[in-house]
Amino acid sequence: MSVFLATVERGGNALPHPGTLFAILAGVIVVISAIAARTGLEVTHPGTGELIQPVSLATVEGLHRILTQMVTNFTSFAPLGTVLVAMLGIGVMESSGLIGAALRLLVLSAPKRLLTFVIVLAGVLSNTASEIGYVLLVPLGGIIFLGAGRHPIAGLAAAFAGVSGGYSANLLLGTVDPLLAGLSEEAARIIDDGYRVNPAANYYFMVVSTFIIAAAGTWVTERIVIPRLGAYHGDDDPAATQPDVLQGLSPVEKRGLGYAMLALLAFAAVLLWGTVPANGFLRNPDTGGLLRSPFLSGIVAFIFLGGTFVGVAYGAATGAFRSDADVMNGMGKTIGALGTYLVLVFFAAQFVAYFNWTNLGLIMAVKGAEALRSSGLGGIPLMLSFVVLSSFINLFMGSASAKWAIMAPVFVPMFMLLGYTPELTQTAYRVGDSTTNIIAPMMSYFALIVAFFERYDKRSGIGTVVATMLPYTVVFIACWSILLMVWMWLGLPVGPGAGLEYQQ
Predict the structure, then answer these.
(1) Cβ atoms within 10 A of the Cβ of 343, count?
(2) What CA–CA distances, in Å, run from 40 to 60, 214, 276, 365?
(3) Rounded to an integer, what distance in angstroms lies between the CA atom of residue 368 and that of residue 186?
(4) Distance separating alpha carbons of residues 211 and 128, to the nearest angstrom
(5) How many whole angstroms separate alpha carbon 259 and alpha carbon 53?
(6) Are 74 and 349 in contact (CB under 8 A)?
(7) H helix or E strand, kind and range, residue 44
(8) What confidence score (pLDDT) does residue 244 get?
(9) Alpha helices, H only, 222-378
(10) Could you say which DSSP state residue 135 is in?
(11) Which of 158, 80, 62, 125 is nearest to 357 (CA)?
(12) Can you list the alpha helix ranges (DSSP code H) found in 97-174?
């Protein structure tokens, strides 16, 4: 195990920053396009019958296109606007203190026999607000377990499993959903220029996965992790042996949650008014249905509006927001934290654009689809193989969006040509990507988790974290793969308007 971990660590550390990696890959695409254009490579477009040949960017015309469309590539990149808008609403909720208070209420109000389940479930739900679960819920899990007389590292593990291992499960849409949907849509347009991927494309599968992961995480914690850790006898640091005082909700926070609940109910009532009646103002004006409706197409706007409305209600009740400036500062703080993401998106946008311009994505998709057809693999083995591939790549590259930006232009068109929707491909990717987060040293919060472990055991290190979390990974992959197989066998849509079969 130690040799394997050392290898993973060395391999991961050898990779450059994701932004640098995309810059390098963009340059590689230019070189490959020049080589491919000289080989006489060509394929027939399966949809139009058009002969497709690689386009070299290592020409004067290619240079002009790179220079003149650099800004447009960035500003028109599908995930950019959706993530920024969604984060504005989430930022108001976070800066008001609403998310932290809600998570504490959820955990503290749980019966002791359901404590582990609630911690894992809270971890899964916390990923709606991106990294809040890592910095709030994971240490909170250790505190709660220590206060309950159980091993605090088991509490850390349970929370971490939910937050990171269950990253693609939730009852609510988060910032990652529009981000991945945007990348999938960009990739799908290589085959079908008019194809749209809804941010809620995986919602049905996510909801069911939430309870599967919560139950699986609870079983691993109780049956494997806690027996392995044994009784906790404290550490050399007296502070680590004393239960931290887990503060209950203050009267002010309770009042804030009451106002937030009223605001949420009011917002939900407006949405129901617009979607439930046959002539609802949020339904498709042409068909009267919810598919291709303003409601589903504007889901990111509703995340922003709902988050802002509820967050303002809480902040006003608690005094966290005393003026409109406080609300705007909360939004600004959240957007300010996305500086690294914006840099990453700039280079990712160039890479995706070059990939599309050169026709390499389409050519690889056609060739890959032909190879897969000849392999004789059916739909379920094919998707399970993709889950395994995604989980393996995740060990070396921590960013879900960065990996999908690279993989989507290849695999989404490939599976479309084999008759599977981008939404299903995205689902399989998310399953594989989530399950190995908790054992991936390159995951951005992994070092923070090691520090949490060290608080209760000074001898803890990367090996300790991986050894503790590995059972979660194995069980999560098994349970999620079984769920995916059953889902495909039953032919269920993975989300609203997101079936399994693609037909040109």
Answers:
(1) 15
(2) 20, 52, 56, 17
(3) 19
(4) 16
(5) 60
(6) yes
(7) strand 43-44
(8) 46
(9) 226-229, 238-241, 251-275, 294-297, 299-318, 324-336, 339-357, 360-375
(10) I
(11) 62
(12) 98-108, 115-126, 132, 138-147, 152-160
Instruction: Answer yes or no: are the C-beta atoms of 215 and 117 closer than 8 Å.
Output: yes
Amino acid, res. 482 = I
Q: How far apart are CA 241 and CA 257, in angstroms?
A: 33
Question: 165 with 430: CB under 8 angstroms?
Answer: no
Q: What angle, rounded to 10 degrees, do the helices at 176-188 and 422-435 form?
A: 130
Amino acid at 21: L
Which residues of the chain fall below pLDDT 70? 1-18, 45-49, 78-79, 103, 106-107, 110, 128-132, 175, 234-247, 291-292, 365, 368-370, 372-373, 376, 396-399, 402, 441-442, 444, 447
pTM of full prediction above 0.70: no
DSSP-based three-state secondary structure for 498:
strand
Q: List the one residue out of 95, 90, 86 whose CA is nearest residue 330.
A: 95
Q: Which three-class secondary structure state does DSSP give residue 51?
A: strand
Residues 6+ positions from 113 with CB-CB distance below 8 Å: none
Considering only CA atoms, which of 190, 9, 173 is closest in space to residue 83? 173
Q: Which of 469, 466, 474 is nearest to 120 (CA)?
A: 469
What does the domain layout of the chain look like in residue ranges? 2-490
Compute the half-sphere exposure of residue 110: CA atoms within 13 Å on the CB side of its CA. 21
For the chain, the C-alpha Rg in angstroms (whole number) is 24
Distance CA 334, CA 161 (A): 25
Show Cβ contacts of residue 297 under 8 Å, excluding neighbours closer than 6 positions: 198
User: What size, in residues, is the chain?
Assistant: 504
**Which run of H or of E encompasses 84?**
helix 78-96
Q: How far apart are CA 331 and CA 154, in angstroms?
A: 35
Whether 473 and 437 have beta carbons less than 8 Å apart is answered as: no
DSSP result, 71-82: HHHHHT-HHHHH
